[in-house]
Automatic annotation (TrEMBL):
Protein's name in the database: Small ribosomal subunit protein uS15
One of the protein's GO biological processes: translation
Molecular function as annotated in GO: rRNA binding; structural constituent of ribosome
Record has Acyltransferase as a keyword: no
Cross-referenced SUPFAM superfamilies: S15/NS1 RNA-binding domain
Gene from which the chain derives: rpsO
Source organism of this protein record: Oscillatoriales cyanobacterium SpSt-418
Ranges in a coiled coil: none
Cross-referenced SMART domains: Ribosomal_S15
Record has Phosphoprotein as a keyword: no
Amino acid sequence: MPLLQQRKQEIISEYQVHETDTGSAEVQVAMLTERINRLSTHLRSNKKDHASRMGLMKMIGARKRLLGYIQKKDEQHYRDLIGKLGIRG
């Protein structure tokens, strides 16, 4: 279930830090969140897809590490990002 190129461009343009930014931590977190949300809906209807469940756990771990980095770097920016993405509470 890869993201379509058009959806990726929308996410990048929404969360980029500067004009040529495609790989900052904020963009990566937004991209991972989109993939996690898609995979979660897939797993609700395919309960026995254990391989995808493991991939989901890896993506959640990667997002958690990136969010920890953002939180250490700038606490207010971290709070704004999780509020905008609708994660963690």
